[in-house]
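@channel sequence for tomorrow's demo:
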Amino acid sequence: MKKALCLILAALMLFAVTGCNNNTASGGTVKLGIPGGNSLTPQEIIDGFVAEYSGKYNIEIEDTPWGEFKTKLNLGIASGTAPALYIMDSGYVADAGYSGANEDLKPLIDRDLNADEYVSAIFSGTDMNGHVWGVPHAMNATMIFYNKDLFDKKGVEYPAADWTWDDMLEKAKALSYDEDGDGKNDYYGISWANNITVGWLPRMLSHGLEPVNADFTKAQLDTPEVRAAWEEHRTWKYDWKIMPDDDFGTLYPNWWQGKIAMMIGVAANINTFEANAPDLNYDVQVIPVGPKGSNNCVYVPNMWAIYSRADETSKEAAWDFIKYYYNEESQEICSKYNKGGFPIRKSVYENMGETKPANIKGIIEGIDQRGHTLSEGPGWSEWRTIIDKAYTDYISEKPTKSFDQIMTDVQADVQRVLDEANAKLAQ
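structure tokens (generated this afternoon):
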């Protein structure tokens, strides 16, 4: 059973409960099933929980391959046999919460946790009505990675916590150059991706723009301001040539091989970089203050969620695990085990010693000061995919439609999804 435990509460840990009586088998056995994959949750925490609670619950682990998990979860929610406790991205958890599939954790937090002991991200799963559909497993924050050797080579100052969008662009221009004289840059100042997390959302937020309004009823995409923000990406790439071309090669190898001075990324990238380039001389900094005076620290809080239709014993076991995961000892284990898994408990990150990258604490503080999740709301999974595709087309070298048509279509398509999602909520 230890082996099964070790295998899961790993990659993106998940408690799945199957069996009769809505997730609790006869005889009081609580089955905890976790998707297979590389671990993001230390074995020590799982073993510690089982040791402490084995007298209270008859715990049985059931392995589910990670690749099958979301499909199985969807089927489980539809059939009433979904996991009692599961972990999934914040957008999925929000969709499940709005549909009534998740337990509201706000009463449990108020009863059992002192919110002052945790970073504000503990409430990142809160919807517009005050329900908390999930709590974070860790904070996978967006940040700017920068290669200190490339900065030193050109005599460019490292980015500071109060840097601006203009500072970033000037540095990127100074760090983009053709070294061998073949007419094409060998080094690029910055790489900026296309998707919601490390692409269009932090860019729009830096310009003071949101993709939808506060109550998730109106799309806010076909505007001159949004067009200007999207067009800026094209300018960086095709006019200033501070970003690599689409055919420049795979992003991460060019980063750890020292061809890109700055790149937008997330905390989870740290482990990948350490595995592939442990001697890379780099650090991280928060997203700079944008053109409209806006700054943000977008983060992806993969969420623990409790299935609302689970039986009471299984819900109690699920909440006991969350509390155990959030205690001081477990959070300290998390902070040491996974360099990209920022702790939720304040005392743990405040007492962190030397880290690589050195500015991890600054990023965590950035989340608490100006954190922004992925604008999760009704219909999120569908409308954010629509924007992903539209943005990718807009900034491509040869868009499939005119820019006007791309913006007209994305506005209409996102509005349709919002209307449908809100209509379902009203039923």
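heads up for whoever presents: The CA atoms of residues 36 and 65 lie 4 Å apart.
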